[in-house]
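Q: Hi! First time asking for a complex rather than a single chain. Here are the components, and I think there are two in total. Is that enough to go on?
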Amino acid sequence: MGLDLAALMGILGLTGAFAIVGAVLAAWMAWRIVEKAGLPGWTGLGAVLLTLAVVSSIVPLVLLWVFAFMRWPRDEPAGAAPGYGGAAPAGGPARPAPTRALAPPAAALADRRGWKLVGGLPGGSVALAIDGSATAYVLTGAPAAEPTELSVPDPSVGRPHARLLIAAGRLGLEDLGTAGGTFIDGARLSPEHGPRDISAARAIRLGTVELTLSRA
Amino acid sequence: MTYVVAWILGLGTLALLMLAIAHLVVALFLIIPTWRICTRAGFSGALSLFHLVPVIGWMIVMAVLAFSDWPNGEASPARR
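A: Yes, that's all I need. Here is the structure of the assembled complex.
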């Protein structure tokens, strides 16, 4: 009987130790995950503490769902880079200066794969590869005349329409002030906004052309 | 005696089946939001299927999200 009790206590002790280690690990990992999403680390720690305080309730599940579907500060558009904000072209399809580039962001992306924009046109489809060999590309409705020009042959796309900028593994987009408009995940991008980071964006619209952004 | 054994085996199988179904239901409620978190971070949504692994599955998913670089980018330290 004494041996059985000792064995039982040993199992309980092991389970307890596993639970403590698991809780500490969970708190640490939750801290890091919410920080990567742009939230303060203590919110992740608080969620884990709340989970421990109300074990087997629905609260942790609700918190997980809220975190998954809320807007992350990481995805908030960064302000226009200094020196670019007020430099929108004043109407007219002026050819953009090739010297402009997206300012390096605070956090560079480790993933250095290229990007691709794929979409459908009334008479077919368009697939654009952005391999990162240049720091800036121009999206235009006209046939591409240079390697840094990407053609989207549609009447609603300006000539030129927008500019793609690459810096530190991130992709930026700048509207050049055409009538059709440029949209990032449904939100209008104006020339006044300057270059915006679209590394985490999914859908880009140029005029009436919907393009899906993904890694090459 | 045979009846007793059959009853015990039957009840045990039923209990295991119920446990498996409950586990799948709970895992599904974890997998859906985790799938979205993984894709927003830039990983494959299939990573969230680790929730199907009992006991340590959630730890594996959290560890990958916490300790690897997110392909879709992370918030800069200034934003945290």
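A: Confidence is low (pLDDT under 50) at residues 79-99 of chain A. Let me know if you'd like any chain examined more closely.
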